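Please, structure for the following, as tokens.
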Amino acid sequence: MFEGEMASLTAILRTDTVRVPKPIKVLDAPGGGSALVMEHVDMRALDSHAARLGTQLADLHLENKRLGETLRKEASTVGKGGGQVDRAFVDKFGFDVVTCCGYLPQVNDWQDDWVTFYARQRIQPQMDMVEKGSGDREARELWSALQLKIPDLFRDLDIVPALLHGDLWAGNVAEDSSGPVIFDPASFYGHAEYELAIAGMFGGFGRSFYSAYHGAIPKAPGFEARLQLYQLFHYLNHWNHFGSGYRGSSLNIMRNLVR
């Protein structure tokens, strides 16, 4: 579990966009288990730095795209290219290690196509757990129908892989005197819109946050439907963590999207 969190914190830290606690080491605990040692940050609830978090989160999501543009520019400039940037552009969707959203592991095998990654490596594993746990027939039938609809939600959309926090709800953001802090990530390279799904489910992010974020990354056509699709993962994940109290929300999203 903590190896994925450490890799996620390290990846975000390297972008120099939004602050995370600096990870130090994963320790094996006596008798089993492990612990992640990281920088101590004297945090409080996000308040006065919400707009700044929106701006910095957009910077995080745009960092890989900007890196690609810089590398292409350098490659096409006489006398430049090679050694100017210390990181490579990421052109696939996934992550180098398994991460956890809650206590459930997420396999992040690299895929060329975002829709394939999201359907196979986010929704399908959650549906497999639902099937194993309850054999819910309606959920199974709705998912079968929804899979046919998903490609239409991404028509004419050019998605550049963005490094995501991966579990950005209000309990994983804070601030200190210097600005916003995010923590407890489950990172991967994906569609930037995915990040806003759980942020909108449980509140805690005010208007200033969204205004700043969308000032840098405007909503693309079809945003609201895709947001529902991304929230589906989190409702299913909560169903598999906490029980059937999240069944209704999961099925309602699928019903709305297959209409």
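The chain is about 45% helix and 10% strand. The first strand starts at residue 23 and ends at 28.
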